[in-house]
Amino acid sequence: MIINHPLLGPRDASEFIYLGDASLIDRPDWNSENAAQQFYEYLYLRDNPAGTIRELWFHEYGDRSWLVVTRNTLTHEIVNVELARDIDREEKHSR
Amino acid sequence: MKYSGWNILKQALTGKKEWAPVWHKPEPKSHYETIVIGGGGHGLATAYYLTTEYGMKNIAVLEKSHLGSGNVGRNTTIIRSNYLLPGNEPFYELSMKLWENLEQTLNYNAMVSQRGVVNLFHSDAQRDSFVRRGNAMCIAGADAVLLDERGIRNLCPFLDYENSRFPIKGGLLQPRGGTVRHDAVAWGYARGSDSLGVDIIENCEVTGFIIKEGRCVGVETARGNISANKIAVCVAGSSGRLMGKAGIRLPIESHVLQAFVSEGLKPILPNVITFGAGHFYISQSDKGGLVFGGDIDGYNTYAQRGNLPIVEDVCAAGVAIMPMIGRSRLLRMWGGLVDMSMDGSPFIDKTRIEGLYFNGGWCYGGFKATPASGFCYAHLLAKDEPHPVAAEFRLDRFKRGHMIDEKGAGAQPNLH
Ligand SMILES: Cc1cc2nc3c(=O)[nH]c(=O)nc-3n(C[C@H](O)[C@H](O)[C@H](O)COP(=O)(O)OP(=O)(O)OC[C@H]3O[C@@H](n4cnc5c(N)ncnc54)[C@H](O)[C@@H]3O)c2cc1C
To answer: Which CATH architecture does the domain made up of B21-78+182-252+344-415 adopt?
Structure first.
Protein backbone atom coordinates (compact mmCIF):
# COMPACT_ATOMS: atom_id res chain seq x y z
CA MET A 1 0.00 0.00 0.00
CA ILE A 2 1.11 3.56 -0.70
CA ILE A 3 0.00 6.27 1.71
CA ASN A 4 -0.22 9.74 0.24
CA HIS A 5 1.21 11.77 3.13
CA PRO A 6 -0.27 15.32 3.17
CA LEU A 7 3.18 16.86 3.69
CA LEU A 8 5.60 14.36 2.13
CA GLY A 9 3.66 12.87 -0.75
CA PRO A 10 3.34 9.13 -1.55
CA ARG A 11 5.17 6.91 0.98
CA ASP A 12 5.34 3.13 1.32
CA ALA A 13 3.07 1.79 4.07
CA SER A 14 6.01 -0.10 5.58
CA GLU A 15 7.40 3.25 6.81
CA PHE A 16 4.39 3.48 9.13
CA ILE A 17 3.22 1.85 12.35
CA TYR A 18 -0.47 0.99 12.54
CA LEU A 19 -2.43 1.85 15.66
CA GLY A 20 -6.04 1.17 14.69
CA ASP A 21 -9.46 2.80 14.49
CA ALA A 22 -9.35 6.63 14.47
CA SER A 23 -11.97 6.68 17.21
CA LEU A 24 -8.93 6.38 19.51
CA ILE A 25 -8.49 10.16 19.05
CA ASP A 26 -11.66 10.77 21.06
CA ARG A 27 -10.52 9.83 24.53
CA PRO A 28 -13.43 9.76 26.99
CA ASP A 29 -13.63 12.25 29.80
CA TRP A 30 -12.27 10.61 32.97
CA ASN A 31 -14.50 12.87 35.00
CA SER A 32 -17.78 11.76 33.49
CA GLU A 33 -20.18 9.65 35.52
CA ASN A 34 -19.82 6.41 33.57
CA ALA A 35 -16.13 6.90 32.78
CA ALA A 36 -15.28 3.22 33.49
CA GLN A 37 -17.82 1.97 30.94
CA GLN A 38 -16.72 4.59 28.41
CA PHE A 39 -13.04 3.69 28.78
CA TYR A 40 -13.87 -0.01 28.44
CA GLU A 41 -15.64 0.62 25.15
CA TYR A 42 -12.95 3.05 23.98
CA LEU A 43 -10.08 0.69 24.72
CA TYR A 44 -11.49 -2.71 23.87
CA LEU A 45 -14.52 -2.65 21.55
CA ARG A 46 -14.18 -2.07 17.82
CA ASP A 47 -16.56 -1.52 14.91
CA ASN A 48 -14.17 -3.55 12.70
CA PRO A 49 -16.03 -2.60 9.51
CA ALA A 50 -15.87 -4.46 6.20
CA GLY A 51 -15.62 -1.43 3.92
CA THR A 52 -14.61 2.12 4.77
CA ILE A 53 -12.55 2.61 7.93
CA ARG A 54 -10.78 5.66 9.36
CA GLU A 55 -7.59 4.67 11.10
CA LEU A 56 -4.44 6.01 12.72
CA TRP A 57 -1.01 5.44 11.15
CA PHE A 58 2.23 6.80 12.65
CA HIS A 59 5.05 7.80 10.30
CA GLU A 60 7.72 6.09 12.42
CA TYR A 61 10.40 5.97 9.71
CA GLY A 62 9.55 9.42 8.38
CA ASP A 63 8.46 12.69 9.90
CA ARG A 64 6.85 11.03 12.95
CA SER A 65 3.47 12.58 12.37
CA TRP A 66 0.17 10.83 13.07
CA LEU A 67 -2.11 10.45 10.06
CA VAL A 68 -5.78 9.60 9.74
CA VAL A 69 -6.12 7.35 6.70
CA THR A 70 -9.52 6.56 5.19
CA ARG A 71 -9.21 3.14 3.60
CA ASN A 72 -11.41 0.36 2.25
CA THR A 73 -10.77 -2.87 4.17
CA LEU A 74 -12.16 -4.99 1.32
CA THR A 75 -9.91 -3.58 -1.42
CA HIS A 76 -7.09 -1.79 0.49
CA GLU A 77 -7.87 1.32 -1.56
CA ILE A 78 -6.90 4.53 0.26
CA VAL A 79 -9.32 7.35 -0.39
CA ASN A 80 -8.16 10.09 1.96
CA VAL A 81 -5.16 10.95 4.13
CA GLU A 82 -5.17 13.76 6.70
CA LEU A 83 -2.94 14.93 9.53
CA ALA A 84 -4.41 13.72 12.82
CA ARG A 85 -3.52 16.98 14.52
CA ASP A 86 -5.67 18.92 12.03
CA ILE A 87 -8.62 16.68 12.74
CA ASP A 88 -8.14 16.93 16.48
CA ARG A 89 -7.98 20.72 16.27
CA GLU A 90 -11.08 20.95 14.12
CA GLU A 91 -13.01 18.70 16.49
CA LYS A 92 -11.97 20.65 19.57
CA HIS A 93 -12.88 23.85 17.75
CA SER A 94 -16.35 22.69 16.81
CA ARG A 95 -17.12 21.41 20.32
CA MET B 1 -18.51 -46.79 4.62
CA LYS B 2 -15.86 -47.49 7.23
CA TYR B 3 -12.37 -46.77 5.97
CA SER B 4 -9.97 -49.65 6.47
CA GLY B 5 -7.16 -51.48 4.73
CA TRP B 6 -9.59 -54.29 4.06
CA ASN B 7 -12.09 -51.95 2.36
CA ILE B 8 -9.41 -50.36 0.18
CA LEU B 9 -8.42 -53.80 -1.01
CA LYS B 10 -12.01 -54.86 -1.53
CA GLN B 11 -12.92 -51.72 -3.50
CA ALA B 12 -9.78 -52.01 -5.61
CA LEU B 13 -10.74 -55.56 -6.58
CA THR B 14 -14.45 -54.89 -7.13
CA GLY B 15 -14.32 -51.85 -9.42
CA LYS B 16 -14.46 -49.15 -6.68
CA LYS B 17 -18.25 -49.07 -6.97
CA GLU B 18 -19.02 -48.32 -3.33
CA TRP B 19 -16.89 -45.21 -2.82
CA ALA B 20 -19.39 -42.40 -2.32
CA PRO B 21 -19.18 -38.68 -1.51
CA VAL B 22 -18.43 -38.33 2.20
CA TRP B 23 -21.15 -35.77 2.94
CA HIS B 24 -24.54 -35.09 1.37
CA LYS B 25 -25.74 -31.80 -0.03
CA PRO B 26 -29.13 -31.43 1.70
CA GLU B 27 -31.60 -28.61 1.12
CA PRO B 28 -31.99 -26.42 4.24
CA LYS B 29 -35.02 -27.21 6.43
CA SER B 30 -37.12 -24.35 7.80
CA HIS B 31 -36.28 -25.15 11.44
CA TYR B 32 -33.42 -26.69 13.41
CA GLU B 33 -32.75 -27.20 17.09
CA THR B 34 -29.26 -25.74 16.70
CA ILE B 35 -27.67 -23.81 13.84
CA VAL B 36 -23.91 -23.51 13.68
CA ILE B 37 -22.82 -20.64 11.42
CA GLY B 38 -19.49 -21.29 9.67
CA GLY B 39 -18.29 -24.54 8.14
CA GLY B 40 -14.69 -24.19 9.20
CA GLY B 41 -12.87 -26.59 11.49
CA HIS B 42 -14.45 -25.18 14.65
CA GLY B 43 -18.02 -25.14 13.32
CA LEU B 44 -17.83 -28.70 12.02
CA ALA B 45 -16.18 -29.96 15.21
CA THR B 46 -18.93 -28.25 17.23
CA ALA B 47 -21.65 -30.05 15.27
CA TYR B 48 -19.78 -33.33 15.61
CA TYR B 49 -19.35 -33.15 19.41
CA LEU B 50 -22.89 -31.82 19.91
CA THR B 51 -24.03 -35.09 18.41
CA THR B 52 -21.51 -37.53 19.83
CA GLU B 53 -20.86 -36.08 23.30
CA TYR B 54 -24.10 -34.32 24.14
CA GLY B 55 -26.66 -36.36 22.20
CA MET B 56 -28.17 -33.34 20.45
CA LYS B 57 -30.15 -33.81 17.26
CA ASN B 58 -31.52 -31.69 14.43
CA ILE B 59 -28.39 -29.62 13.80
CA ALA B 60 -27.32 -27.67 10.72
CA VAL B 61 -23.99 -26.13 9.79
CA LEU B 62 -24.41 -23.16 7.44
CA GLU B 63 -21.37 -22.27 5.34
CA LYS B 64 -21.31 -19.28 3.01
CA SER B 65 -18.91 -20.86 0.52
CA HIS B 66 -17.58 -24.42 0.24
CA LEU B 67 -16.33 -26.37 3.24
CA GLY B 68 -12.78 -25.58 4.16
CA SER B 69 -12.61 -22.35 2.15
CA GLY B 70 -11.73 -20.35 5.26
CA ASN B 71 -8.79 -20.58 7.62
CA VAL B 72 -9.08 -24.29 8.22
CA GLY B 73 -7.79 -24.72 4.67
CA ARG B 74 -5.33 -21.82 4.81
CA ASN B 75 -3.27 -22.36 7.93
CA THR B 76 0.27 -23.64 8.37
CA THR B 77 -1.04 -26.77 10.16
CA ILE B 78 0.96 -26.48 13.38
CA ILE B 79 -0.49 -28.01 16.56
CA ARG B 80 1.01 -27.54 20.01
CA SER B 81 -0.04 -26.97 23.62
CA ASN B 82 2.80 -24.75 24.78
CA TYR B 83 0.90 -21.86 26.32
CA LEU B 84 1.83 -20.20 29.60
CA LEU B 85 -1.29 -18.90 31.31
CA PRO B 86 -3.70 -21.00 33.37
CA GLY B 87 -6.67 -19.60 31.39
CA ASN B 88 -5.21 -21.08 28.19
CA GLU B 89 -2.95 -24.06 28.81
CA PRO B 90 -5.46 -26.67 30.08
CA PHE B 91 -7.68 -25.89 27.09
CA TYR B 92 -4.88 -26.40 24.56
CA GLU B 93 -3.76 -29.56 26.33
CA LEU B 94 -7.29 -30.95 26.04
CA SER B 95 -7.06 -30.15 22.34
CA MET B 96 -3.76 -32.01 22.06
CA LYS B 97 -5.28 -35.07 23.72
CA LEU B 98 -8.22 -34.95 21.30
CA TRP B 99 -5.79 -34.69 18.36
CA GLU B 100 -4.03 -37.80 19.60
CA ASN B 101 -7.19 -39.87 19.17
CA LEU B 102 -8.81 -37.93 16.37
CA GLU B 103 -8.17 -40.31 13.53
CA GLN B 104 -9.47 -43.33 15.42
CA THR B 105 -12.49 -41.35 16.61
CA LEU B 106 -13.35 -40.09 13.14
CA ASN B 107 -12.12 -43.12 11.19
CA TYR B 108 -10.38 -40.61 8.95
CA ASN B 109 -6.72 -40.11 8.12
CA ALA B 110 -5.95 -36.54 9.17
CA MET B 111 -2.20 -37.19 9.01
CA VAL B 112 -1.66 -36.17 12.64
CA SER B 113 2.11 -36.09 12.91
CA GLN B 114 3.64 -35.54 16.36
CA ARG B 115 7.03 -34.62 15.00
CA GLY B 116 7.83 -32.12 17.77
CA VAL B 117 7.75 -28.32 17.91
CA VAL B 118 10.98 -26.49 18.80
CA ASN B 119 10.93 -22.87 19.96
CA LEU B 120 14.47 -21.50 19.69
CA PHE B 121 15.86 -19.07 22.25
CA HIS B 122 18.69 -16.66 21.69
CA SER B 123 19.48 -15.00 25.02
CA ASP B 124 19.63 -15.80 28.73
CA ALA B 125 16.47 -13.83 29.43
CA GLN B 126 14.59 -15.74 26.77
CA ARG B 127 15.85 -19.01 28.18
CA ASP B 128 14.47 -18.06 31.60
CA SER B 129 11.07 -17.27 30.17
CA PHE B 130 11.03 -20.56 28.27
CA VAL B 131 11.92 -22.47 31.42
CA ARG B 132 8.94 -20.84 33.09
CA ARG B 133 6.71 -21.70 30.17
CA GLY B 134 7.92 -25.29 30.13
CA ASN B 135 7.12 -25.62 33.83
CA ALA B 136 3.65 -24.18 33.30
CA MET B 137 3.10 -26.71 30.53
CA CYS B 138 4.18 -29.62 32.73
CA ILE B 139 1.91 -28.45 35.55
CA ALA B 140 -1.02 -28.61 33.12
CA GLY B 141 -0.09 -32.15 32.10
CA ALA B 142 1.62 -31.30 28.82
CA ASP B 143 5.17 -32.26 27.85
CA ALA B 144 8.14 -29.94 27.57
CA VAL B 145 11.88 -30.52 27.22
CA LEU B 146 14.51 -27.82 27.55
CA LEU B 147 17.36 -28.30 25.09
CA ASP B 148 20.72 -26.58 25.28
CA GLU B 149 22.71 -25.66 22.21
CA ARG B 150 24.14 -29.15 21.84
CA GLY B 151 20.66 -30.64 22.09
CA ILE B 152 19.42 -28.40 19.30
CA ARG B 153 22.52 -29.11 17.20
CA ASN B 154 21.81 -32.82 17.40
CA LEU B 155 18.20 -32.31 16.35
CA CYS B 156 18.66 -29.60 13.72
CA PRO B 157 22.31 -29.42 12.62
CA PHE B 158 21.45 -27.15 9.69
CA LEU B 159 20.58 -23.98 11.65
CA ASP B 160 22.88 -20.95 11.62
CA TYR B 161 24.61 -21.33 14.98
CA GLU B 162 27.24 -18.73 14.12
CA ASN B 163 24.71 -15.94 13.66
CA SER B 164 26.35 -13.11 15.61
CA ARG B 165 23.21 -11.03 16.09
CA PHE B 166 20.91 -13.83 17.29
CA PRO B 167 23.06 -16.80 18.31
CA ILE B 168 21.03 -19.96 18.98
CA LYS B 169 21.41 -20.85 22.67
CA GLY B 170 18.90 -23.68 22.84
CA GLY B 171 15.22 -24.33 22.57
CA LEU B 172 12.04 -25.50 24.24
CA LEU B 173 10.82 -28.70 22.63
CA GLN B 174 7.30 -30.04 22.85
CA PRO B 175 7.72 -33.58 21.53
CA ARG B 176 3.95 -34.15 21.22
CA GLY B 177 3.46 -31.04 19.09
CA GLY B 178 3.54 -31.31 15.31
CA THR B 179 1.39 -30.89 12.25
CA VAL B 180 -1.96 -32.13 10.93
CA ARG B 181 -3.28 -32.16 7.38
CA HIS B 182 -5.61 -29.15 7.69
CA ASP B 183 -8.20 -29.91 4.97
CA ALA B 184 -8.55 -33.46 6.24
CA VAL B 185 -9.66 -32.08 9.61
CA ALA B 186 -12.57 -30.27 7.95
CA TRP B 187 -13.40 -33.28 5.78
CA GLY B 188 -13.14 -35.74 8.66
CA TYR B 189 -15.43 -33.77 10.97
CA ALA B 190 -17.82 -33.13 8.06
CA ARG B 191 -17.99 -36.82 7.23
CA GLY B 192 -18.45 -37.72 10.90
CA SER B 193 -21.22 -35.16 11.48
CA ASP B 194 -23.00 -35.94 8.22
CA SER B 195 -23.09 -39.63 9.01
CA LEU B 196 -24.76 -38.78 12.34
CA GLY B 197 -27.48 -36.74 10.64
CA VAL B 198 -26.11 -33.19 10.74
CA ASP B 199 -27.15 -31.11 7.71
CA ILE B 200 -24.08 -29.45 6.21
CA ILE B 201 -25.36 -26.70 3.95
CA GLU B 202 -22.83 -25.04 1.70
CA ASN B 203 -23.28 -21.80 -0.29
CA CYS B 204 -25.61 -20.57 2.42
CA GLU B 205 -24.35 -17.23 3.72
CA VAL B 206 -26.02 -15.90 6.85
CA THR B 207 -26.97 -12.29 6.12
CA GLY B 208 -28.81 -11.36 9.31
CA PHE B 209 -30.35 -12.50 12.58
CA ILE B 210 -34.03 -12.70 13.43
CA ILE B 211 -34.30 -11.21 16.90
CA LYS B 212 -37.62 -11.07 18.74
CA GLU B 213 -37.94 -9.51 22.20
CA GLY B 214 -34.24 -9.81 22.88
CA ARG B 215 -34.10 -13.43 21.78
CA CYS B 216 -32.45 -14.74 18.63
CA VAL B 217 -34.93 -17.10 16.99
CA GLY B 218 -33.42 -17.64 13.57
CA VAL B 219 -31.22 -16.43 10.75
CA GLU B 220 -31.69 -14.83 7.36
CA THR B 221 -29.63 -16.61 4.74
CA ALA B 222 -28.93 -16.53 1.03
CA ARG B 223 -31.25 -19.55 0.86
CA GLY B 224 -34.14 -18.15 2.90
CA ASN B 225 -34.95 -17.72 6.57
CA ILE B 226 -34.26 -20.58 8.96
CA SER B 227 -35.48 -20.68 12.54
CA ALA B 228 -33.67 -22.36 15.41
CA ASN B 229 -33.65 -22.52 19.19
CA LYS B 230 -29.91 -21.93 19.45
CA ILE B 231 -27.67 -20.08 17.04
CA ALA B 232 -23.94 -20.61 17.33
CA VAL B 233 -21.72 -18.14 15.48
CA CYS B 234 -18.34 -19.64 14.51
CA VAL B 235 -17.01 -17.62 11.59
CA ALA B 236 -13.40 -16.80 12.61
CA GLY B 237 -12.17 -13.84 10.51
CA SER B 238 -15.72 -12.71 9.69
CA SER B 239 -16.74 -12.40 13.36
CA GLY B 240 -16.90 -8.58 13.43
CA ARG B 241 -18.84 -8.36 10.22
CA LEU B 242 -21.44 -10.95 11.24
CA MET B 243 -21.88 -9.97 14.90
CA GLY B 244 -22.32 -6.37 13.75
CA LYS B 245 -25.58 -7.57 12.19
CA ALA B 246 -26.80 -8.45 15.68
CA GLY B 247 -25.68 -5.04 16.94
CA ILE B 248 -22.82 -6.47 18.97
CA ARG B 249 -19.39 -4.81 18.96
CA LEU B 250 -16.55 -7.19 19.75
CA PRO B 251 -13.08 -6.87 21.27
CA ILE B 252 -11.78 -8.09 17.90
CA GLU B 253 -10.17 -6.68 14.74
CA SER B 254 -9.91 -8.61 11.47
CA HIS B 255 -6.39 -8.82 10.07
CA VAL B 256 -4.64 -10.86 7.40
CA LEU B 257 -2.02 -13.55 7.96
CA GLN B 258 -0.05 -14.88 5.00
CA ALA B 259 1.34 -18.38 4.49
CA PHE B 260 4.01 -19.62 2.12
CA VAL B 261 4.99 -22.92 0.51
CA SER B 262 8.25 -23.62 -1.33
CA GLU B 263 8.81 -26.01 -4.19
CA GLY B 264 9.03 -29.67 -3.15
CA LEU B 265 12.37 -30.64 -1.62
CA LYS B 266 13.85 -33.85 -0.25
CA PRO B 267 13.18 -34.33 3.49
CA ILE B 268 15.30 -31.77 5.36
CA LEU B 269 13.24 -30.61 8.35
CA PRO B 270 12.52 -33.25 10.97
CA ASN B 271 10.10 -31.11 13.01
CA VAL B 272 8.48 -27.71 13.40
CA ILE B 273 10.95 -24.92 14.14
CA THR B 274 10.20 -21.42 15.33
CA PHE B 275 12.64 -18.51 15.46
CA GLY B 276 12.70 -16.79 18.84
CA ALA B 277 14.17 -13.48 17.72
CA GLY B 278 12.09 -12.76 14.65
CA HIS B 279 8.66 -14.09 13.93
CA PHE B 280 9.09 -17.15 11.73
CA TYR B 281 7.89 -20.76 11.88
CA ILE B 282 8.50 -23.58 9.45
CA SER B 283 7.82 -27.25 8.83
CA GLN B 284 8.00 -29.54 5.82
CA SER B 285 4.93 -31.16 4.34
CA ASP B 286 4.89 -34.80 3.33
CA LYS B 287 4.94 -33.65 -0.31
CA GLY B 288 8.26 -31.92 0.41
CA GLY B 289 7.20 -28.28 0.36
CA LEU B 290 8.51 -26.04 3.12
CA VAL B 291 5.43 -24.56 4.80
CA PHE B 292 6.17 -21.33 6.64
CA GLY B 293 4.87 -18.02 7.89
CA GLY B 294 5.51 -15.13 10.24
CA ASP B 295 3.81 -11.96 11.40
CA ILE B 296 0.37 -10.75 10.42
CA ASP B 297 0.37 -7.77 8.05
CA GLY B 298 -0.80 -5.58 10.92
CA TYR B 299 -3.69 -3.46 9.60
CA ASN B 300 -7.44 -4.11 9.57
CA THR B 301 -8.56 -5.94 6.44
CA TYR B 302 -11.18 -8.30 5.05
CA ALA B 303 -9.37 -8.74 1.73
CA GLN B 304 -7.92 -12.26 2.27
CA ARG B 305 -4.65 -11.14 0.71
CA GLY B 306 -1.61 -9.44 2.12
CA ASN B 307 1.13 -7.12 0.94
CA LEU B 308 4.76 -7.50 -0.06
CA PRO B 309 6.62 -5.99 2.93
CA ILE B 310 5.60 -9.02 5.04
CA VAL B 311 6.73 -11.42 2.32
CA GLU B 312 10.17 -9.88 2.49
CA ASP B 313 10.16 -9.82 6.28
CA VAL B 314 9.18 -13.49 6.62
CA CYS B 315 11.71 -14.67 4.03
CA ALA B 316 14.47 -12.59 5.65
CA ALA B 317 13.72 -14.14 9.05
CA GLY B 318 13.78 -17.61 7.52
CA VAL B 319 17.12 -17.14 5.85
CA ALA B 320 18.53 -15.68 9.09
CA ILE B 321 18.14 -18.95 10.99
CA MET B 322 18.27 -21.35 8.06
CA PRO B 323 20.55 -19.99 5.32
CA MET B 324 20.28 -23.31 3.46
CA ILE B 325 16.74 -22.48 2.30
CA GLY B 326 17.89 -19.28 0.60
CA ARG B 327 17.94 -20.82 -2.84
CA SER B 328 14.67 -22.73 -2.75
CA ARG B 329 11.88 -21.07 -4.66
CA LEU B 330 8.49 -19.98 -3.40
CA LEU B 331 5.74 -21.95 -5.03
CA ARG B 332 2.58 -20.50 -3.52
CA MET B 333 1.44 -17.93 -0.99
CA TRP B 334 -1.95 -16.80 0.21
CA GLY B 335 -3.68 -14.97 3.03
CA GLY B 336 -6.45 -15.71 5.50
CA LEU B 337 -8.60 -13.43 7.65
CA VAL B 338 -7.69 -13.76 11.28
CA ASP B 339 -9.92 -12.59 14.13
CA MET B 340 -7.35 -10.82 16.33
CA SER B 341 -8.63 -10.23 19.83
CA MET B 342 -7.57 -7.51 22.24
CA ASP B 343 -5.49 -9.87 24.40
CA GLY B 344 -4.59 -12.53 21.86
CA SER B 345 -6.92 -15.13 23.43
CA PRO B 346 -10.26 -16.48 22.16
CA PHE B 347 -13.92 -16.38 23.21
CA ILE B 348 -16.40 -19.22 23.67
CA ASP B 349 -19.37 -17.57 25.30
CA LYS B 350 -23.04 -16.64 25.36
CA THR B 351 -23.91 -13.15 24.16
CA ARG B 352 -26.29 -10.62 25.69
CA ILE B 353 -28.90 -11.81 23.16
CA GLU B 354 -30.54 -14.98 24.41
CA GLY B 355 -30.15 -17.93 22.07
CA LEU B 356 -27.14 -16.37 20.33
CA TYR B 357 -23.70 -17.82 21.11
CA PHE B 358 -20.26 -16.72 20.00
CA ASN B 359 -17.01 -18.54 19.25
CA GLY B 360 -14.14 -16.47 17.84
CA GLY B 361 -11.04 -14.39 18.48
CA TRP B 362 -8.72 -17.27 17.58
CA CYS B 363 -6.12 -14.91 16.14
CA TYR B 364 -3.49 -16.74 14.08
CA GLY B 365 -3.55 -19.81 16.29
CA GLY B 366 -6.93 -21.50 16.24
CA PHE B 367 -6.15 -24.52 14.09
CA LYS B 368 -4.52 -26.40 16.98
CA ALA B 369 -7.61 -25.51 19.03
CA THR B 370 -10.08 -27.06 16.59
CA PRO B 371 -11.05 -30.22 18.52
CA ALA B 372 -11.21 -28.55 21.95
CA SER B 373 -12.99 -25.50 20.57
CA GLY B 374 -15.70 -27.71 19.07
CA PHE B 375 -15.84 -29.77 22.26
CA CYS B 376 -16.17 -26.79 24.59
CA TYR B 377 -18.56 -24.89 22.33
CA ALA B 378 -20.77 -27.98 22.17
CA HIS B 379 -20.64 -28.15 25.97
CA LEU B 380 -21.73 -24.52 26.26
CA LEU B 381 -24.55 -25.00 23.75
CA ALA B 382 -25.82 -28.17 25.35
CA LYS B 383 -25.56 -27.17 29.01
CA ASP B 384 -25.64 -23.37 28.88
CA GLU B 385 -22.54 -23.20 31.01
CA PRO B 386 -18.88 -23.04 30.00
CA HIS B 387 -16.72 -26.15 29.89
CA PRO B 388 -14.25 -25.97 32.83
CA VAL B 389 -11.17 -25.61 30.59
CA ALA B 390 -12.79 -22.80 28.58
CA ALA B 391 -14.30 -20.98 31.54
CA GLU B 392 -12.09 -17.92 31.10
CA PHE B 393 -12.85 -17.34 27.41
CA ARG B 394 -15.56 -14.81 28.23
CA LEU B 395 -16.56 -11.72 26.28
CA ASP B 396 -16.73 -9.54 29.39
CA ARG B 397 -13.22 -10.34 30.63
CA PHE B 398 -11.85 -6.94 29.60
CA LYS B 399 -14.51 -5.18 31.59
CA ARG B 400 -13.66 -7.28 34.63
CA GLY B 401 -9.92 -6.85 34.09
CA HIS B 402 -9.31 -10.58 33.58
CA MET B 403 -7.43 -10.52 30.27
CA ILE B 404 -5.55 -13.62 29.12
CA ASP B 405 -2.61 -11.83 27.56
CA GLU B 406 0.17 -14.39 26.89
CA LYS B 407 2.55 -11.72 25.61
CA GLY B 408 1.54 -8.89 27.91
CA ALA B 409 1.22 -6.68 24.86
CA GLY B 410 -1.97 -4.86 25.87
CA ALA B 411 -5.05 -3.95 23.87
CA GLN B 412 -3.22 -3.80 20.55
CA PRO B 413 -4.30 -6.69 18.28
CA ASN B 414 -1.42 -6.38 15.82
CA LEU B 415 1.11 -6.98 18.60
CA HIS B 416 -0.30 -10.32 19.75
C1 LIG C 1 -2.18 -18.22 6.99
C2 LIG C 1 -2.67 -18.78 8.29
C3 LIG C 1 -1.86 -19.66 9.01
C4 LIG C 1 -2.30 -20.20 10.21
N5 LIG C 1 -1.49 -21.11 10.85
C6 LIG C 1 -1.93 -21.71 11.98
C7 LIG C 1 -1.13 -22.70 12.61
O8 LIG C 1 -0.04 -23.07 12.13
N9 LIG C 1 -1.59 -23.25 13.76
C10 LIG C 1 -2.77 -22.89 14.31
O11 LIG C 1 -3.13 -23.41 15.35
N12 LIG C 1 -3.58 -21.97 13.71
C13 LIG C 1 -3.17 -21.37 12.56
N14 LIG C 1 -3.98 -20.42 11.94
C15 LIG C 1 -5.26 -20.05 12.55
C16 LIG C 1 -6.38 -21.02 12.24
O17 LIG C 1 -6.36 -21.39 10.89
C18 LIG C 1 -7.74 -20.40 12.58
O19 LIG C 1 -7.71 -19.80 13.87
C20 LIG C 1 -8.87 -21.41 12.58
O21 LIG C 1 -8.86 -22.18 11.40
C22 LIG C 1 -10.20 -20.67 12.71
O23 LIG C 1 -11.29 -21.55 12.89
P24 LIG C 1 -12.12 -22.21 11.68
O25 LIG C 1 -11.35 -23.37 11.14
O26 LIG C 1 -13.46 -22.51 12.19
O27 LIG C 1 -12.15 -21.01 10.64
P28 LIG C 1 -12.61 -20.95 9.13
O29 LIG C 1 -12.16 -22.15 8.39
O30 LIG C 1 -12.20 -19.61 8.61
O31 LIG C 1 -14.18 -21.06 9.28
C32 LIG C 1 -15.09 -19.98 9.30
C33 LIG C 1 -16.10 -20.23 8.22
O34 LIG C 1 -17.19 -19.34 8.36
C35 LIG C 1 -17.66 -19.04 7.07
N36 LIG C 1 -18.46 -17.82 7.14
C37 LIG C 1 -18.04 -16.55 7.31
N38 LIG C 1 -19.08 -15.70 7.31
C39 LIG C 1 -20.19 -16.46 7.14
C40 LIG C 1 -21.58 -16.15 7.05
N41 LIG C 1 -22.03 -14.90 7.14
N42 LIG C 1 -22.46 -17.18 6.87
C43 LIG C 1 -22.02 -18.46 6.76
N44 LIG C 1 -20.72 -18.79 6.84
C45 LIG C 1 -19.81 -17.80 7.03
C46 LIG C 1 -16.40 -18.88 6.25
O47 LIG C 1 -16.64 -19.04 4.86
C48 LIG C 1 -15.52 -20.00 6.81
O49 LIG C 1 -15.61 -21.19 6.08
C50 LIG C 1 -3.57 -19.84 10.73
C51 LIG C 1 -4.38 -18.96 10.02
C52 LIG C 1 -3.95 -18.44 8.80
C53 LIG C 1 -4.84 -17.51 8.04
So the answer is: 3-Layer(bba) Sandwich (3.50)
